[in-house]
Structure formats: C-alpha cells, structure tokens
Amino acid sequence: LTLTSANVFAQDFVLEEILVTATKRQQTLQETPMAVSVTSADTIEKAQILDIIDLQTVVPSLRVTQLQTSGNTNFLIRGFGNGANNPGIEPSVGVFIDGVYRSRSAAAIGDLPNLQRIEVLRGPQSTLFGKNASAGVISVVTALPGEDFGGSAKVTFGNYGQTIVKGEISGPVTDSLGFGLSASSNKSDGYFDNLSNGSEFNGRDRFGVRGQLYSTPSDRLSLRLILDYDELDEACCGVGNIINGATAGAVAGVGGSLVPENTFSRSGFVNFNPSNKVKNSGTSLQVDYDLENSLITSITSIRNVTRIEDADVDFTSADIIGTNFSDTDIDTFTQELRWSSVGGEKMDWMIGAFFFDEGVTYD
Fold first, then answer.
1. Percent of the chain scored above 70 by pLDDT?
2. Which residue of 116, 131, 209, 300 lies most exposed, with the fewest beta carbons within 10 A?
C-alpha cells in the first residue's frame, strides 16, 4: 500500500478592468450594452500595429481595403462600408480620434500616435455618433500627458529598406498644466515592380507630429488642446490581374501588356508610377466640466485634408486612359456639446447637439 499526499494551492485570479467610452461616458466593457472590440496599447505594441489599416489583424469583423491610391482606403465592419473612391461621399464607418470626427478615410490613415486604446463599435451607431456611422465606429483614444516628466524613442528596421522612427516626450509644466509632444517617420522601399520601366512602388513615406496641452484649473474643470499634422508622399498602388477577361485581347491588340491572372504577382505594366500626396492637419479643444452628478462636455475642431493624386488607371502599358489627375481640398468644422449623467443607479441620460460644416473642392 502506497500513500501519497499533495498540497493544493488556491490562487486568486484578478481580471483587468477595461474602461471604454463607447457610449460617450466612461464605463467598464462589461457594462457597455453593445458589441465593442477594445485593443489596448500593449496589444498594439506587441502586434506591431502602425496604423488603422493594420488594426484589422486583431479586430474581428473589421476589414480595411486599400484601393488604387493611398487615400482611397475603405473601412468595412461586418462587411458594410462605403465612400472610398468618391470624395463627395462620406464613409458609413465613422472614424473618431479623441472624439473628433474624421470625415474622410484619407484623414485617418497616418501612423497612430501615442495610444491608450482603440474601440471598434460594430453595427449602427447613429444615435450617439451621427448619421455617418450606420455601419459602425472606429474610436481612437490617445494618452494624456504623464504626471511625471519622461519620454521614449524607438527605431525599427525591416526588410524592403523599412525604417521607422518614433519619439514622444511629456510632463508637467505647472501643477495644473501638462504637455505632450510626439513625432513619427515611416519609410520603406516599394515591393511592386513596374515592368514597363523597372521602377518599384507600394512603399511607405509618411511623417507626423502631434502636440497637446492638458490643463485642470480646478477639480471640476479640465481642458485639452491638441494640434496635429501628418503627410504622406507615396507611389501607390499596384494592381493584380485576377481574371484575364475579354478586354485583355483588346489591350494586346493596341500593343499593350499586362500580367495575366496572377493576383500575387507583385508586378504589372503601367506607363508611369502613381503618385499620392496627402496632407492632414487639425486643431481641437475639449472642455469638461463636472457638475458632481453630471458632466458637460464640449469638443470643437477645425480640420483640413488635401490630396493630390495621379495614376495610370487602365493599369497596362497601353496608353488607353492616360493620366487620372485629381486635386482634393476638404475643410471641416465640428462642434459637439453634450450634458450627461455620470452613472445613475436606475437611469442614465444624455442630452447633446452636434454641428458639422464641410466644404469640398474636387478637381
């Protein structure tokens, strides 16, 4: 007879509390009555997510497609989304960065700044986020300036000549005022070969800078001023030939060439390299005033997006369509004002108004 004894240890597991603002008030993820995927800053760092395009690798039901230019990027949630190719159409997936609406996808594709979290809300969100959120919302929340002075810098090297440089610094100016400043640069060579002239495109050339001031003049009042600027100057995008249809014979008949039925060829024939120049800038001011049992919030923003793009959109060496030059300039002003409860035992309420004014010039 063999007797054995074992010690049994009890271990307490503590689940991390995840706070979100999907309902425009701070709640835990478990209390939020909607389908929300939250990606933390730690996950973004470990998964090497550089921009919103990369976010689809960790968020279920989110799909991001980059079409014939960098600015023509389309966000889809549960398969729904529109508005990439026509600057007169506002996307049905609303993108908000620190509560400010980015009315076109070209204004949201830059490298992500110093992040706290990203919330992806699936399904119609028109009640709280407006008419341009019928398919869902991508809400990016950046970090406030740190209470202690500090900073960080990072340099990353990769294949295709990729070089990524990021740096940020933040800290207190006075007991009630803090600042934050960050900048990033992302460059890489192209991986799509233009067989007409031996050049390469589909690379990266992006730069961005962002500054903020955060002030708490009193226990009840807080103000956050953000200024940001980012730009890209890229040769994008290469197109793969999925089906060699009837038009292929017509292309060959006029002396043109294309790579037939090879989606992953990473090569093609075009008369000239495409060009994409996008500049995106803006200023926002958020004011929060605590009335003990309720909160008044005001968010004011002014933004501008300019896009200059050109491409050989027949995507062959034949001179069929020629140049497809476009020049887009979008000026946007938004003002949001809301008054909400901070969380009652029986009922939560919110009263708000949103003003949106936009001018689009498209040549």
1. 89
2. 131
